[in-house]
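User: Predict ACB domain-containing protein's structure from this.
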Amino acid sequence: MTPHILEKDKEQKEEVAWRTYDVAEYDRLSASYEDPKTMKWKLLPKPGGQAVKPEDYYTLKACIKQVEEGDPPKEQPMWTENGAVDYNGRALFQEWNKLKGKTKDEAKQAFCYAYGKALSEQRFSLNFRKY
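Assistant:
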């Protein structure tokens, strides 16, 4: 007997409809994803006057941290230094935790995939400002 699985919990196959980058381009891409002249990430408001960037930003940052530092720490960040909820730290930790156990090469490949996805036509307006 198989357990009932909700539609939202089923593994979804994603059709790649965007440009894919080679792992050899990792160094160039990882240096450019935070460049404020070319990548104007949107800021999404959160309670308490804080703002976070879109999920794709944290996916890219988590891939870089996995390449440079390896697996994430055991504890998820909760609070900022001024006592507010750490939305940025928590979003980064959640994305980084998804990469736990991946090698540097696998994390680089994940970065290149996520980079292409973030810049795709379908997601560009969700991730970036026009001005």
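The mean pLDDT is 89.
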